[in-house]
Amino acid sequence: MQQKEKLHPDIWSEFIKGNFCVTKGLAGFTSIAPDHGIEQENRTLKVMGGIVGLTQNEKALDRFFLIAPELSKVLNEFASEYGLDSGDNSSQHHEITGGKLSRIMKNAAKLKGIFHEHGDPFMADGDKDDIYNLLTTEVMTDKVSKDILDRDNIGQTMFEEFVKERLEEGTIAIWDRMKKRKLGTFKTANANISVKVGDKLVKVKEE
After folding, report:
1. Are residues 71 and 45 in contact, defined by beta-carbon separation less than 8 angstroms?
2. What's the pLDDT score for residue 191?
3. Measured between alpha carbons, how far is 130 from 5 in angstroms, rounded to an integer?
4. What is the Cα–Cα distance from 156 to 163, expressed in whole angstroms?
5. pLDDT at 9
6. Residue 80 pLDDT grade (very low, low, confident, very high; cuts 50, 70, 90)
7. Measured CA distances, 63 to 39, 49, 81, 161 (Å)
8. Cα separations (Å) of 2 from 6, 16, 20, 124?
């Protein structure tokens, strides 16, 4: 790559022009890699119905891959022509819009106040070493805290079990379904729970 400019000037010229990524909007710094762009196109086709129920029908599958891209193209052209395109054609990056910047500044000021009051959050202070959300100051439960602190060890143990059971001993087929380990996180620590009170369902948020 360091010799690209000298050894392959044509390719280097295309790099300089930016022809190594896909640009779909007007805002700067929003280009994406070609494989990412292809995935977005694939998602568009899936939204239109996808290949569910067609995988065992070769002719139907061929028709889908021939017709779906053209239908997507026609739909996009129609939406663009009549102003129905819901895409973001703003020339400003979404990370520097007024609302986004306002939230960032408010959160930064709040964090600064917390650091000033409580000190370095990474330094344990005696019995006050609970894991908590810096902005909301919600303390995590013992189970969630343990999952967060032991996540690396849990992952390593699962990896070793996979190798032992499926590759070394062969007691489980390598393609058999893996059991997902649901670790507690900040998001799940205070999930909403629906409780039936009389004839109504009331959502209770655990904190």
Report:
1. no
2. 64
3. 55
4. 11
5. 92
6. confident
7. 20, 13, 27, 44
8. 9, 14, 16, 47
H-helix segments, 119-202: 142-149, 151-162, 186-189
The per-residue pLDDT for 10 is: 92
- Residue 89 above 80 pLDDT? no
d(CA 107, CA 95): 15
- Which of 119, 143, 139 is closest to 131 using CA atoms? 139
On whether the CB atoms of residues 174 and 133 are closer than 8 A, the answer is no
Strands 192-197 and 200-205: antiparallel
Which has the minimum average pLDDT: 61-70, 120-129, 185-194? 120-129
Report field, pTM of the whole predicted structure over 0.85? no
pLDDT-derived band at 129 (thresholds 50, 70, 90) equals: low
Token pair recorded at residue 204: 């209770």
3-class DSSP state of 51: coil
Distance CA 32, CA 20 (A): 9
83-100: b or e for each residue (b if 16 or more CB lie within 10 Å)? eeeeeeeeeeeeeeeeee
| Cβ atoms of residues 118 and 126 within 8 Å | no
Separation CA 12–CA 15 (nearest Å): 5
Is residue 201 over pLDDT 70? Answer: yes
Main-chain phi, psi angles of 123, to 5 degrees:
-100, 120
